[in-house]
Amino acid sequence: MKVGFYGHVRQYHNIKDEIDANIQKVIESGKYVLGPMLEQFEKELAEYMGMKYAVGVNSGTDALWLAFMALGIGEGDECITTANTFFATAEAIWIAGATAVFVDTDPKTNCIDPSKIEAAITEKTKAIVPVHLYGQCADMKAIREIADKYNLLVVEDNAQAIGAHGDGFKIGELSDAVCLSFIAQKNLGTFGDAGGVVTNNEEVATTIRKLRNHGSLKRSYHSMGYNSRLDDIHAGVLSAKLKHIDEWNDLRRKWAARYSEGLKDAANITLPYEKPGYRHVYHLYVIETKKPEHRDQLLQHLINSGIDAKCHYPIAIHQQEGFPWGKGARIVGSLTNTERNAACCISLPMYPELTEEEVDYVIEKVLEWDKSVS
User: Fold this and answer.
1) pTM of the shown model
2) What domains are there in the chain, each with its CATH number?
């Protein structure tokens, strides 16, 4: 049996008529950039997230640095975040001209550890940038409390957790802006690059609308800006898919529960941890080998068995060659948990369109390896 890592094509065939209808609607409208389909999707996205404003942009990376710029974050400022995330989190801080300050993560969730944040705060600190890693929210209540104490901004990197929530809080409720990625492999993804910023701050939303379009809200009237627009065809795909996101996330949770039940007795791996009261939407189902030297062994065993497993993310940002590439960066304290996560992580196939047979085959092969090690 072969088990792929992505279910893009299966998903398309499942709702082909809805996606095709929206694409056709865009083509027939003759309006492909900043058109009515984008406006429709932005309204739907804001409503889904229970917030006032949504702005579509070119990518999740752009969503981050445009949000930083709209909030006045730039040269001389510091943003506190983590290093076991996709490179774009730090990259966006650097694009905005700020310094990335890395602190360690919670050993169970692999999200930012709020207890490590205060030690990293200086007179230059402007914002905290928590990453909702793998589909589970960071501890936003604790982060908001720290931000209020020191008068800091909070920007959520929500590239992986649309539809998730915490214990008594929703995404966006405790921050100044939420940044999303809609690249193909996300829980809500289009057939290419796309991103968005959601906020309750009208000024931030308006500023991003200008920045994404050459500093313009009106034809022929410009200020300094960029070209970062979410095209209407992508908006049409996302609008069709948004109607199914909760159902799809429920299926991800179903497969995650099946993995966890099947692998609970494995002696040489650690399973994902879901905090009580949280809704983890499992953008990724990430196990960790208990010994770093076992990670590549298990990964190769799965690949040899026809299972497309991957690693997210095998080299923490601060451990990558050339760090910090001439940009501002500080590391505060030990990054022990961050480095363990990078050294031991394996992502098993996770998407709504998996089958019981595929999930059980993956479980079988992980247990086969586990038994051979034991």
Assistant:
1) 0.97
2) 10-242 (3.40.640.10), 245-373 (3.90.1150.10)
